[in-house]
Amino acid sequence: MTETVSGPSRGSAGAKSTGKARAKQTARGLTIDRIYTTPGVHPYDEVTWERRDVAQQNWQTGETVFEQKGVEFPEFWSLNASTIVTTKYFRGAVGTDAREWSLRQLIDRVVKSYRQAGEENGYFAGPDDAEVFEHELTWMLLHQVFSFNSPVWFNVGTKSPQQVSACFILSVDDSMESILNWYREEGMIFKGGSGAGLNLSRIRSSKELLSSGGTASGPVSFMRGADASAGTIKSGGATRRAAKMVVLDVDHPDVEEFIETKAREENKIRALRDAGFEMDLGGKDIVSVQYQNANNSVRVSDEFMHAVEKGEKFGLRARMTGEVIEEIDARELFGKMAKAAWECADPGIQYDGTINDWHTNPETGRITASNPCSEYMSLDNSSCNLASLNLLKFLNKDGSFDSETFAQAVELIITAMDISITFADFPTEKITETTRAYRQLGIGYANLGALLMASGLAYDSEAGRALAAAITSLMTGAAYKRSAELAGVVGPYEGFARNAEAHSRVMRKHAAASDALRTHFALDGDVQKVATRYWQQGNKIGENNGWRNAQASLLAPTGTIGFMMDCDTTGIEPDFSLVKFKKLVGGGSLQIVNHTVPEALRKLGYTEETVEAIVEYVAEKGNVVDAPGLKPEHYAVFDCAAGQPRAIEPMGHVRMMAAVQPFLSGAISKTVNMPESATVEEIEDVYLQGWKLGLKALAVYRDNCKVGQPLSDGSTRKSAKDKEAEKEVVVEYRPTRKRLPKSRPSRTTSFTVGGAKGYVTAGSYPDDGLGEVFLKLGKQGSTLAGVMDAFSIAISVALQYGVPLETYVQKFTNMRFEPSGLTDDPDVRMAQSVVDYIFRRLALDHLPFEKRSALGIHTAAERTQQLKTGEYAPVESDDDIEVESYRQSASVTPPDVVVRDTTPVEESTAKQAPAEAHTSAELLEAIQGTSTDAPLCFTCGTKMRPAGSCYVCEGCGSTSGCS
């Protein structure tokens, strides 16, 4: 079924305005002007509504876990979005009249509560402004321009406590009463559908004495009780499992034990698994493993990081007296952190110096911890409610970013977020006091990866980072400008007076970073100009009024709410893959290419015929490498977080985080994904560069470093009898070498790659199977020539032992190192290295068409034939005319030719998704034959995908995080 938007949905093209949408500060409240809505027309009347049946299955067991018929949603909402909203956010018992059945009911329940609280607390100049506020908020939620965090949808307007915050920071002191209270407070927060973090560094170490003369247990021992508690509590009832963060300062005497805690448990998991126990998450034996319900992070100081750089000693300090009780080698401890992260992805790292240098409330207390996903960092015993904007909604048809409308939307949303604090409930008295006194907010965004791709920008590029930074600066600048205006209407936050100087200093730091932002072209330059204006105006107002909010912005995972907004990408993340799994309203599913792919190709200037050919290739292969007509220099625009043969490099993720960090009050929920081949030293470098680049927090995940994967039901596991039978049957296979005869056919090919010349000689068996390869590169006797000789012998012997050539082609194509670049081979015009070229040439010469076509390797003549017929087929001729024809067809549109926007290509290339795929992660596995290292969803049994520093399920919206 084709889903079309009824009514405006993107950028200024759909915005209706009666004037500049600005809030005017008056003695009696804010005057709210219209952004999107029309006077006298309710937003609900502008869209076409339809009824749908929502059903959700566990794909592992076939069990129907949820069903509600006749729910009402706008026609342009995807089935996935409506399913997630119906299952997660509609309140009331299913099958009763109390159950919500329409998106209108859900939005009204929330928005009308915000309007009422705003009127009661003097936010609006009059009833007309309150109505405009209600209609604008309704329009933006209806059209998926933004979303509040999940607790708002769970709780606001219901009989439940009005908990609106997703993120909490607790505190614990060195007393048993405080420790037991920590357990209780965490449990209440998990029950309400949120997550919490805290720093355990106040607790005495196991190397210190108690007042009674005994030895203290240490914080790691108390983590066991909290971990067990979290493992038994599901957030929000059956919504999701508990999310928590545990932080320990690097100068704590138990820091080494803390660092190695989860790595030791991972080794235990491996040992028990090998012994036959069920160690998958959800298996009956996994409960014997500890510390699995929390993310762990080490809080490092600048002093420690300097000691790491210089290879110096660093002192661990007693908690009670502050005296140094032990000196350790800083670099050695840093290496242990990286090694533990290499083994099990924990601990992450938090940079204390940077965090507190950007702290607006240092007179009240230091920032010591974060929420579970590391994006909210503020005072102990505080909370933060979040909201995220869908960036793709502000991309105009002409390719520009609608900065003015974006800023106006931010101002309205931040007003609503502040209003929520007036009626919100909180789990503890201390959190209530701190949140009401400091009013921390966390506005952010999603779909950055899709926005960059649609703009023709690579995620890992200077231009991509500049645009992301400019948008982030504008978002925070607009949020704080409105916060300053609110301070003039309803007063600054209670803690502002004692922190006024520090708050103003941080505002100036943000503004200076925005001024220093280096732009690359008109797109990001225009956004930066608007951001600069907002910072100047906002800081001027703030100097007079103060600010209403101690914190304003951060970048959350946007897992569930990202799907609610039909976002292609979550938070700050790049696209997960170029192909997507799409469920249809009438049943069934499709495998489609992201709509941002053809948008990006048109932006880059490709003809419509070439766009269609590339999109069809992507639909088949799942990547753009060797796509017909696509220039290799444009490959990077389509690089994703997952997939082969290209994925964004780890430092590409770090550089993007560093680009936007100076423009955020809080931090960024993001995990730096690293390949399984990554080394401990590479993780050390990522952690070190994160500090140097000014990040506040960083976490890494190396593929396949964890053993446990969640199972949705025991029926998927093997019985003990089956396992025993497997153990009894042991079959050992040994390869035998088939040597080449003394006389054998061979073929020698000369080549040039990036100016380097060489020769490859390939010898075959008489029955035409490749049996040896000899490479000549570099002068005889040189190191390079010797290495290539050894490489040739190793490959030749392996071929004679039966290793298939296609295995080597899979492993060595797309390997990148110098020399690389243009070749003199018409079939392989570009090579990323000599090895990449050699194995592409060997595939073309020695693999049958079907095998090399499956690997995406074709001759120039075959690619020309594909452009003519739409299908790849073997072509015998290597005629120069055909090669030249291919080159001409691959050229981009001349600058003076206008490419018209036509019907989305995805409709013509969509096809039935493989039966084994139920999410995009599983679809990518089916297409590329690779394994996506992500857990299975506890609710529906499908494979999840990364969202920030947690995971989210495309099928049902379940998330392991806290947003």
From TrEMBL:
InterPro entries xrefs: RdRp_reductase_class-2, RNR_2_N, RNR_lg_C, RNR_NrdJ/NrdZ, TSCPD_dom
Annotated TSCPD domain ranges read: 738-844
Task of the protein: Catalyzes the reduction of ribonucleotides to deoxyribonucleotides. May function to provide a pool of deoxyribonucleotide precursors for DNA repair during oxygen limitation and/or for immediate growth after restoration of oxygen.
Region of interest: Disordered: 1-26
Q: Which GO terms describe its molecular function?
A: cobalamin binding; cobalt ion binding; nucleotide binding; ribonucleoside-diphosphate reductase activity, thioredoxin disulfide as acceptor
- Stored Gene3D superfamilies: 3.20.70.20
Q: What keywords does the record list, in alphabetical order? A: Cobalamin, Cobalt, Disulfide bond, DNA synthesis, Nucleotide-binding, Oxidoreductase
- Source organism (scientific name): Phytoactinopolyspora alkaliphila
Give the lineage: Bacteria, Bacillati, Actinomycetota, Actinomycetes, Jiangellales
**Residue ranges of domain Ribonucleotide reductase large subunit C-terminal in the record:** 165-701
Q: What reaction gets catalysed by this protein? A: a 2'-deoxyribonucleoside 5'-diphosphate + [thioredoxin]-disulfide + H2O = a ribonucleoside 5'-diphosphate + [thioredoxin]-dithiol
Q: Is RNA-binding one of the keywords UniProt gives this record?
A: no
EC number(s): the record gives: 1.17.4.1
Superkingdom of the organism of origin: Bacteria
Family statement drawn from the similarity comment of this UniProt entry: Belongs to the ribonucleoside diphosphate reductase class-2 family.
Tell me what this protein is called.
Vitamin B12-dependent ribonucleotide reductase
Q: Name one Pfam family in it.
A: Ribonuc_red_2_N
Q: What cofactors are annotated for this protein?
A: adenosylcob(III)alamin
GO BP terms: DNA biosynthetic process
PANTHER family per the UniProt record, alphabetical: RIBONUCLEOSIDE-DIPHOSPHATE REDUCTASE, VITAMIN B12-DEPENDENT RIBONUCLEOTIDE REDUCTASE
